[in-house]
């Protein structure tokens, strides 16, 4: 039996990874800022982090925040993993972190580099955006009478459970370096995703596409965050909406 520590183990992805690893017969430790007995703020590190890693064979690093601090957290985790003799560090990243000049993406890329240079056995998997995140963004936009979208924007959302399956399988294997990306089954216009969301939630909103400016928008418009050659996901956005809202069959594609 392998002892595996999952950081961010109570989050959207982490909790599913934990479930799959436990189902596989592993001893799994869940690390988060508030989940005992391994309640640790990775930005601070310290003896609590060392205790969480003691005797662990593998670490699956899912913890992340868009409020800053991912690089510091990763550095603390890597240093503690070295002290504990961890043999395999698995990190989940995002497709396009090396192509889209977004601050959060740059931080994820920096963490990838820290992992690769850690001296530990390592595996990095990049995935496209989860259905949950796309729905969260659309829910925010739909609070107004008019849904304003960035013109010519596309996305390739993937089912989080499928990414969890892949990440758990990688954690059970040997260090493999940078793995092929995982993308959702369809590259969709953001407008088509928005209309599918509105249909599924029964909201009537006008949808307006507005061109934006800047390097980040140009990178998204160019598809820097997409992985059409790795459309290995099976679950569609409409299927996700149907499971969450009990509808979604009328969602338009495009």
Automatic annotation (TrEMBL):
Occurrences of domain NAD(P)-binding (ranges): 8-136
InterPro entries: Ergot_Alk_Oxidoreductase, NAD(P)-bd_dom, NAD(P)-bd_dom_sf
Recorded coiled-coil stretches: none
A Pfam family this chain is assigned to: NAD_binding_10
Protein name as it appears in the record: NAD(P)H-binding protein
Origin species: Streptomyces hyderabadensis
């Amino acid at each position: 039996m392998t002892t595996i520590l999952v950081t961010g183990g109570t989050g959207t992805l982490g909790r599913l990874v934990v479930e799959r690893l436990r189902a596989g017969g592993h001893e799994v430790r869940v690390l988060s800022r508030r989940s005992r007995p391994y309640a640790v703020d990775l930005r601070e590190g310290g003896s609590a982090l060392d205790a969480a890693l003691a005797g662990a064979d593998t670490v699956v690093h899912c913890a992340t925040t868009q409020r800053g601090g991912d690089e510091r957290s990763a550095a603390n985790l890597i240093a503690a993993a070295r002290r504990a003799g961890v043999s395999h560090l698995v990190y989940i990243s995002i497709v396009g972190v090396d192509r889209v000049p977004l601050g959060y993406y740059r931080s994820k890329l920096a963490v990838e580099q820290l992992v690769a240079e850690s001296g530990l056995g390592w595996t990095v998997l990049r995935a496209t955006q989860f259905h949950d995140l796309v729905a969260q963004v659309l829910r925010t936009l739909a609070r107004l009478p008019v849904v304003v979208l960035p013109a010519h924007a596309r996305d390739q959302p993937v089912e989080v459970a499928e990414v969890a399956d892949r990440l758990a399988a990688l954690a059970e294997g040997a260090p493999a370096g940078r793995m092929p990306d995982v993308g959702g089954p369809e590259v969709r216009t953001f407008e088509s995703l928005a209309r599918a969301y509105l249909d599924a939630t029964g909201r009537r909103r006008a949808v307006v596409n507005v061109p934006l400016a800047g390097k980040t928008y140009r990178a998204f418009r160019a598809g820097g965050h997409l992985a059409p050659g790795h459309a290995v996901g099976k679950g569609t956005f409409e299927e996700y909406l149907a499971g969450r809202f009990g509808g979604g069959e009328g969602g338009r594609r495009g």
